[in-house]
Amino acid sequence: MSAPTGRPEDGTPTLELRGVDKSFGAIQVLHGVNLKVFSGQVTALVGDNGAGKSTLIKAIAGIHAIDGGEILFDGRPVTVSGPRDSAALGIEVVYQDLALADNLDVVQNMFLGRERKRGLLLDEVSMEQAARETLTKLSVRTLKSVRQLVSSLSGGQRQTVAIAKAVLWESKVVILDEPTAALGVAQTRQVLDLVRRLADTGHAVLFITHNMVDVFEVADRVAALYLGRMAADIPISQVNRSQVIELITAGRSGEIGIAPAEAAAVEV
Question: Average pLDDT, stretch 161-178?
């Protein structure tokens, strides 16, 4: 597994959105959204239900074409017309449903749809070795065997497999959709540790969550969406928990957030 090649040393975001708009019919869901996601950092994307988080993720993943603005990757404007374009750039999304097959083992899930072959046969040895190397690089010690059936795994272990699958494909940006939403305390701890290691291995991580404890546990930056507008995209060190909650619920906290006139217009 090759290391990501982001460029944090020159301040260039691995992934950047500038002025992104998205409408569905007469309903505008995203309004001029700006977002920066840096290599080696976790950016927490937060927002209330209906704020536009899912639409934003799907725009980055190529599921929804944007109507305006631009997407930049490693500082260069790119066109993302579909999921293949997104994957080719090195963007992998781990959705909340994980998309794992219970009747397959860890290796088979990690290579599902991208199996390696040697002639007409599957190259099981190569795939198993690559799966082990990926898990080792992420310091995963919670799996007894890469040949365990996914049906036998806990929720935290399933998240681990899904994240490792995303990393396996030399991704530069990993987007995690509510990875701790259905987990207990111990399993949440395992997943948060893994999220942090993703960044420490050089990935740019976009971490979608409602959990403020998780945000302040692992995030380097926080991006708060309010009714389809980016209220703030700033280092976590510049805000506290109360301020983030205000950004989520009102679009503004003190001097941070949407301009008062704009916020008032949005709320009408």
Answer: 92
Q: So where are the chain's domains?
A: 10-103+171-267
Enter the CATH code of domain 10-103+171-267: 3.40.50.300
pLDDT in tens, 234-248: 999 999 999 999 999
CA–CA separation, 95 vs 85, rounded Å?
18
Do the bridges between strand 204-208 and strand 173-177 make them parallel or antiparallel, or are there none, so unpaired? parallel
Contacts of 233-237 with C-beta under 8 Å, sequence gap 24+, read: 233/34, 233/35, 233/36, 233/43, 236/44
Q: What percent of the chain has pLDDT over 70?
A: 93
pLDDT in tens, 121-166: 999 999 999 999 999 988 898 888 999 999 999 999 999 999 999 9
Q: Which residues pair with 46 in a beta bridge?
A: 224
Which residue, among 236, 239, 215, 1, has the nearest Cα to 110 in the 3D structure? Answer: 1
CB 16 within 8 A of CB 38: no
What whole-number distance in Å separates Cα of residue 97 and Cα of residue 111? 17
Q: At what angle do helices 155-168 and 124-137 cross, to 10 degrees?
A: 110
133 or 7, greater pLDDT = 133
Name the strand (E) or helix (H) holding 216: helix 212-218
CA distances from residue 130 to 53, 81, 191 in whole angstroms, order as listed:
33, 30, 21
Length of the chain, in residues:
268
- Which is it for the CA torsion 100, 104, 110, 111, positive or negative? negative
Report d(CA 217, CA 178) in Å as an integer: 14
Please, are residues 266 and 258 in contact by the beta-carbon 8 Å criterion?
yes
Beta bridge partners of 149: 105
